[in-house]
User: Fold these one by one.
Assistant:
Number 1:
Amino acid sequence: MAHTASTSPESVDDEVTRRDFLLIATGTVAAVGAALAAWPFIDSMNPAADTLALASTGVDLAPVEVGQRITVVWRGKPVFIDHRTDKEIEAAEAVPLNQLVDPQPDSARVQKPQWLIVVGVCTHLGCIPLGQKPSDPRGDYGGWFCPCHGSHYDTAGRIRKGPAPANLVVPPYVFGDEQTIKIG
Amino acid sequence: MEANKTWKNPIVAWIDNRLPIFSMMNADLVDYPTPKNLNYWWNFGSLAGIMLVIMILTGIFLAMHYTAHVGYAFESVERIMRDVNYGWLMRYMHMNGASMFFIVVYIHIFRGLYYGSYKPPRELLWILGVFILLAMMATAFMGYVLPWGQMSFWGATVITNLFSAIPLVGQSIVTWLWGGFAVDNPTLNRFYAFHYLLPFIIFALVFLHLWALHVHKSNNPLGIDVKGPQDMIPFTPYYTIKDAFGLGVFLIVYLGFVFFAPNFFGEPDNYIKANPMVTPPHIVPEWYFLPFYAILRAITFDIWFIPAKLIGVTMMFGSIIVLLFLPWLDRSPVRSARFRPLYRQFFWLFLVDCFVLGAAGGHPPEGHWIWIGQVATAYYFAHFLIILPLLSYLEKPRQLPSSISAAVTPGGVGISAKGVAE
Ligand code: HEM
Ligand code: FES
């Protein structure tokens, strides 16, 4: 180790010297320093402050009729708002948890049963599932159908069939009054 | 590098004495000794190099008119096509150039597979080639996002979402890649920055690739080592002229597409501006990614507690990573498939398998395409991990010729690396 760097005649090849210690210590400090210096570069690629600031969207629910679905944009992604019918609510509540890929009761996915609010991005690879327009296919479970690789979601936005691993994400939202919500 | 030549021109001599660049060019491009039996499959390396230069050249001129912003990117590309002088030519050369680059490189790789060019002492040369392939794939993927059409946007969305399969940190990595909560302006900007950078990294990798090549020199169709100057000819004029002829033929094909079928390899959906609210019914990547896309989608079931998505992603990257280990998976000491009766058949089967994967990747995963993709994926890995290691022991190679000259010019007449008839 100390072979080439050594100037002292006493040091022998396989002997551990103070010089070795200094070399390793210096190298370690340099490596840690390089890693720390890399962080600003890496972090600069994370969402910027203004991107984060755009992070909430207000929605007026009053015009949405029972059985109607609307799409709003939140953080550049579609959010599905579904004014569910009683039948759809019943269907969602009736499913036994052991039949679900990603088990979650309907009550854990809604604040008010008639309003289902989910991010309209397939949890497989990010396509937008069909089902928002009356003419769209809604899949085998009456919710949404992702055409990209064939994932079926039910009336609670839960994954029932196909390659997607998880339920449609429920975004954070609060009801302002009975008829408005703020997402994010 | 050869000892410095003496140059007649005094300016050349003066420079060469201080920076032996002329000696180097002479040693690597003119006097450079090359096996005398190379066939046309050896043209594809120089073609790949020329494609890289064309891509950088057309790319830089496109960059002078392109705007990397979600509000203007699509429009700026349309402006390049309609208003910029010869903009259509630059773009069509760049677009079709990417396809040609991959065709050339894939042929180059299969040439290496057939003639065993990855075997000692050329393992590192091969590995550098695999890194070049990876860098090319990253470059082409990010380039395809730049025109900001529907396929640009949704291709980027699907592929970046792959990283969400990574346990625990997956979603944070995807957010980091996007610089936001979806593919958006920050994503487009960074992809443009990387798309500009990576080709120059490829350039550096190609330099190392050639450096490694020139240490042990080219392999050849017989796969045996050169035994001396009688087995070689100088690169210039013999292979410069052969490469130039090959380039002519290649340009007819390439420019044929540019002028007569410029959108042959493209997707019509990419002439629709990106719309983050509408997914096109059938997302397909560019043709050169189809086999890998098929591998990604082959796994439709969880294995034990590992989710299907994670396995698919791992296998997709694994299908290229496995190439890095090829020199140690195929232990047969014989390089060329000409003398390996069994390997030769498995080589063709493997090639067919890659086409089947490509077809499976291009169809929606329905009906028969599901199991076809799965079987072809299994065979892809079996070829490398089972068949090649077994063949190394089971196969009885044919008798190798004693030298290139003995096989190619048995009469003893030929031209040696010194350039004189012997
Ligand atoms: C390894 C070399 C390269 C490959 C494989 C490659 C690949 C691609 C691809 C596939 C596209 C999309 C074409 C389309 O559908 O419109 C593209 C676009 C683009 N590339 Fe490259 N590229 C390379 C080098 C470069 C370089 C060095 C630059 C220089 C800045 C560049 C600048 C651009 C620009 C500005 C666009 C957008 C305009 C357009 O879409 O036609 N490229 N590239
Ligand atoms: S992205 Fe929806 S099924 Fe693959």
Number 2:
Amino acid sequence: MGIDFVDIAQAIIDGLLFGSTYALIGLGFTLIFGAMHKLNLAYAASAIAGAYVGLAMITLTGLPSVLAFFLGPIASGVIGFAVYVTCFRYIPTTNMLAPLMASIGALFFIDEIVIHATAGSPLSFPAVMEDIYLEFGDFGFRGDLIFVLAISLIAMAVLMYILFRTRLGLATRAVSQQPIAAELCGIAGHRTNAITFVVTGALGGLAGCMAAAAVGVISPLLTVPITVKGLIVTVIGGLGSIPGAIIAGFAVGGFENLFLLLFGVNQRDIYVFLLLFVFLVFRPGGVFDTAIERD
Amino acid sequence: MAFYFGLLQTIGIHTLLGLSAYILLLTGQLSLAQVGFFAIGAYVSGILTVIFEYHIVPGLFLGALVGGLFAFLVGFPALRVKGLMLVVATIAFSEIVRLFFFNLNWRVSVNGVEVGPDSTQGFREIRFYAANGWDTLDVVLFVWLFVVIVMALLWWLDRVRVGATLRAVGADELAAQSSGVNIVAVKVSAMTGGGIIAGLAGGLYAHSATYVDHLTFSVLLATFAVAYPILGGLSSVFGTLIAVIFVQGVLIEGMRFLGDWRNILFGLLIIIAMNVRPAGLIDGKVVLRIREALGTGKKSGGEGHAETR
Amino acid sequence: MFNLKPIMKPAVMAAALSALISPAFAEETVLIAGWGAKSGPLRSFGVNSEAVLKAAVKEVNDSGGIMLSDGRNATLEYIYFDSACNAEQAISVARKVASETSALIGIGPTCSGAAAAMFGVFQKTVGDDSDTGLQFPILTDTAVRNGLAKISQWTFRNTPNEPDMYDKLFAWVAKTYPDLKTIYGGTETDQGHSNGTYSKVIVQASKRHGFDWATGAIEGVTGDLGSGSTEVLDSSSNWLMADTNFSVQARAFKKSNADIYIISSHPFTTCGMLKELKRRRAEPKLMIGLTSSSSAEVMKGCPDAAEGMIIPTSFAPITPAAEKVAMLANENGGDADLHSAAAWENVMIIKRVIESVGIGNTPETLVADRRMIRDGLETLEMTDGLIGEVQRVQDEGEALKPYVFVQATEGKWAVIHDPRAMQ
């Protein structure tokens, strides 16, 4: 069974559509990193946990399943706030390693809570527009992934608006660039950081819901792969670069699926990591190379 | 006693793994590549003792050496990246190593039995200890011999100029460079040293567990490797040991009586520990107090020099 | 199953009452230990296994406990540990149970990777004094990866024999659906069990019974177990255990135009793959799954997409005994499936062995008792299973369990063929 052009194009299309999930997770990492220059490893765990809460709420109350995509992000926003308070707020800002470690603790904690609540059993997750499969000649588009893409584009647009058109966004950017100067100008650093965690948490929750909806099943198994993919997207996109993270998310999704088609699943991830190395060596500043290099 | 001896083996092996990340953290490099070197050491020494029927000592040394060689090679490109970029790049390295062993199939017939790594089926029956009549106490002494040597070496390095150089690079790379420190040499040596120790730990792990497969060497274990020195504090090599005892001895084995609560408390206690002691369980002040108590306190140099990491 | 509950309830309460009274008469206890994954993403293994173990121990005590050699009666007690699918923890628990408790035998661990490591620290050959491995009998219920028990003579398993199951399955499919000719499939390659069973057992069994690979014969594959296993993986469309995107694989399945799809993976990705196949409108005439997927998890995750899938399994609530175990497991907060149900059988095997070898059950005789139990396990030729008699493969420490073929039907696993009568 040979691989023809349609296979390749279709693999890339599917990958790009799924890549919107990676883009959202990468965006979350990059925003937190941009704001605090710190890494929150509990991020993907809170994303998945939020999706679980959304699922639990619609299952227990019988609400329409589309609401999971709103309740999930809200829950993740709350979890994001809790992670900020427990892992970042009270640890000296100059200390880079302690919050990282605390967020690893939070990753274990959140995952175990989910695992205990569900006995580790995968649960069916509702998808919106699941029955739609658009076909154009030889090509097909999954309706639920188009919905996922649309939602993530809206989320990104809203985020860009908040960051660049509102006072809140101005404060966030100010704290991220010059925390002390921002503080002197009367911007509450901690409050701004907390808001960043809530907003990115909600983005993550959306990504978690979408990943679960795309698979159709949710399990805590999703946490580690999403964390790794999100980090790769963050680096390829350039640390702190918002458009970079979005483009990189789609690119990683597309390439991943293409590598899967060409090299098989056992080698797929090796090529994804090699792609990352190519960027680290030739474009360490990320796809757009405009973000200020930070460590 | 077998249980406690087994636990001591685990603590020793994880201490070595943690120390391999500790040296790198001193130079300011947060590396998740340690589990990659650990995997290399595990497979190389396992292959040597099982397929080539080596004695464990040369097997371990060669495993550590190959781990160090790869670390040396990783050390140069790693100079280009820092902070989060390094974290992600080293995760990628570890994952590539893991995927290599995931695909590795090397089955050989030794004494009529087929042995060796069998990709996803794993590498079974690395039974040097049991097959050669070493009981658990012998193994504990063997493992701890290496732990003591490595800890003593690192402790000594920290007391002489080398330690100051490593910490100088970690504290402020630019300042260190302007005072004539060769950054490339320091960072690459630290990476190589870390690789050797991780490779050694990997070899010891493979023989204690008698079995390895690619899933053992996950990102999760990589985070454990850096977790130990961070949790324990970078002011002293003993911090890492204390952290390993805390995680393996208390959180994992010691809290079994709590049943299901143990798993939930695991993460929670790590969060609490980092909030209460952000510079680690054994931070600069503790080290200073211990030194004063022992009467060996050097007044200079001790004052919480790793307080901010 | 559910409508039985109200009828059974008084009986269960009466049984519980008698359990409360009976310890007063029993003077001594016999201790066994269980361990498995109770944390991490595979927690359901440990939860299910412990739920069945608990029910089985209660059953033994309700029917008079365990008879010791000199006519004394002892109450059976169990302790359960979490080993988290982790090799180090499984080894640690094994050492703890063997050296710190008076447990006579262990049931665990649940994960094959942890089992492969744990079995390695046991003495390989009994009585070989130069081998310092642990000397403690194990009778594992869940870890199913092929050929583990022979790692040590102290380790035994009561897990299904997949080569036999899939051989009979394809023979039956060939007879029942004579129109189906071609086959295509994929597996979760990073899991030893799904990968090994797929590439060494299932595809070869299909070949043996005259099915053709839909995309052209695979080089090296004959009817023999394990033949051409590398080529099988290369010719299939595979995925990993934590994968989320199955579009490429589903397309390859659809393109193969095969009559039969094989989906050899654990519940999480089985559901992901099945849902994607459904979305892509890939409509095979038949789907065959991995034994491990014949569990409640698939029915929770994707009942619609799994509809029609056929799996051979060593457990189904088709006998009164199996029905009872399924119900008791639910009452204990778990599910009985082909993995966990074995814990019930194991407890009954242990009772039978202890009663036949005549242990002393004192701290002084602990070492000798454990050895006697091991020897007793080795001499068993046949044990009672929940759905029929289980043959022991003595030199390997493995079992040949009876099985049935189940099909996903309206959110439940329904038995569609029962080969037990023909065996």
